Amino acid sequence: MEHHHIGVQLKQLLKRGYSITDAKKLLKAPLDISEKTIREVMADNSSEQKALLSQRNQASYAMRL
């Protein structure tokens, strides 16, 4: 399976509420590829959360003006 497809499938499973452990079992991909994909997805999620927090703080500040 191609690395990109594994990433897309992993994101879909996580959005559906599966845990990372369950998603790894369902993907049936080589361990090194699935671990790399999980790290990338976790990093993406972290950066998305930081961006959302920044936007929320900016909106909150603007509302106080």
Question: Can you give a write-up of this model?
Answer:
With 65 residues, this protein is mostly helical. It has one domain (3-64). Helix content is 85%, strand content 0%. It has three helices and no strands. The protein has helices spanning 3-15, 20-27, 31-64. The longest helix has 34 residues, at 31-64. The protein is elongated and about 55 Å long. It starts with a helix and ends with a helix.
What's a concise summary of this model?
This protein is mainly alpha-helical. It has helices at residues 3-15, 20-27, 31-64.
Features:
single chain; 65 residues; mainly alpha
Helix content bin: over 70%
Major sheet summary line: none
How far apart the termini lie comes to 52 Å
Query: Overall pLDDT, averaged?
Result: 87
Principal-axis shape: elongated
Number of helices: 3
Helix/sheet category: mainly alpha
Could you name the ranges where pLDDT drops below 50 across 5 or more consecutive residues? none
Rg for CA atoms: 16 Å
Number of beta strands: 0
Content of β-strand: under 5%
Tell me the series of helices and strands, N- to C-terminal. HHH
| Whole-number total of structural domains | 1
Give the helices and strands, then pairings.
Layout: H1 3-15, H2 20-27, H3 31-64
